[in-house]
Model the fold of this input.
Amino acid sequence: MLLACVSQGLWAQYDYYPNGKDEVPVLGMQWGVFGGGYTAMLNNRDDIDADQRLDPQMMNFNWGAGIEGIYWLQRNIGFGAQAMYWNAGAKYTGVDTNTKIHLSATTKLTYAKLPILFHFKSYNRYHPNRRTRFNAYFGPYVALLQTSSDEVRYTKEDDPNFSQYWNFDNGNYSTDGLTGAISGKLYKPADVGFVVAIGGEVRLWRKTVVAVHVRADIGVSDIEDKRVKTIEYSNGLKDTNYVFYSGNYAKYIPPGAAEVLNNWQPNRPATKNFSMGAFLSLRKYFGDKK
Done:
């Protein structure tokens, strides 16, 4: 009996009346918090087409979170924005079949991201208080780079004592026994792209809903800074013509004899952010617009 009463009470919170005092709001301002996990990549044609020396990994788990606001102009159309902390980057492996040297590398980027979004959700006028609805949004974003790092390690399968390591961290360079400073970061300060997401929402209480979406963030700008830089090493040496990306056959991979014979040119194409994953949002209406 007690269990039946509790179940009936929980279900009653969704028992709204179309013309009564408990009619649920569907218009006006809605605020929320959201977060999720996704796999992140850096798409570059040369890296994707490279040989076994560089293998970009499909799975590179990251996370993002933030706050959002949506103004519902109609029962199924709204506009809004998000302010979020965003992790991006990529993972790489590889092996040189001639030297037996293995590559393991990670690029980590963090952004402050601002998407401007168009929202859509289903609405049934015959069942205006239905608690489940289809939900989708899309729109452009601008992202400002906060931190960046590239960590690379080389090992040799037939020599356990062989190990080479270097790291670029926000313009600082370090390797085994040597450090340095670069006159700028390896990545551009801003990225632009667009967001697309589809999913659904469930109304928890009269003004509160929870939404789940599958989301893709697709960059359209080149995020690598290919300009010539200066690097000053801790041993007093200086390189005033330092170009990290443009001189490589693929990321981290210098051109070999095969590339030279094939008339390879150091014209690295654009590198663009991409991520896809799932997000959970908790949203609440402010006001009682019907």
The radius of gyration is 25 Å. Residues 2-12 form the longest helix (11 residues). The chain has a mean pLDDT of 87.
